[in-house]
Amino acid sequence: MRVILRIFFLFVGFGFAVAGGVTLIVFLNLLATGHDFGGYLSFLTGRFETYLFLGGLFIMWLSIYFPSRQ
Fold first, then answer.
1. Which residues contact 61 (CB under 8 A, 6 or more apart)?
2. DSSP strands (E only) in 2-60
3. Where are the domains positioned within the chain?
4. What distance in Å separates the CA atoms of residue 15 and residue 21, rounded to the nearest whole number?
5. pLDDT 10s digits, 47-69
């Protein structure tokens, strides 16, 4: 049962990371409109998608590397 739960959280984290990562890539179009990279990073710090991406990576990391109790 624990393996199924870990796989579930792996897929949830992967979905969050993909959803956040795709939108971060889409926001790279701001660089083509004349914004500099510092402005791009400051824009990303206030976006929900950035935290969704980082949260998804963290959930995947936990589901893979968190020790199981056996």
1. 13
2. none
3. 2-65
4. 10
5. 999 999 999 999 999 999 887 66
Alpha carbons 70 and 58: distance in angstroms, whole number: 23
CB 43 within 8 A of CB 55: no
pLDDT category of residue 70 using cuts at 50, 70 and 90: low
Q: Residue 22 CB: number of other CB atoms within 10 A?
A: 12
Residues 13/58, Cβ–Cβ less than 8 Å: yes
Number of other residues whose CB lies within 10 A of the CB of residue 4: 8
Q: Which of 12, 20, 17 is CA-nearest to residue 49?
A: 20
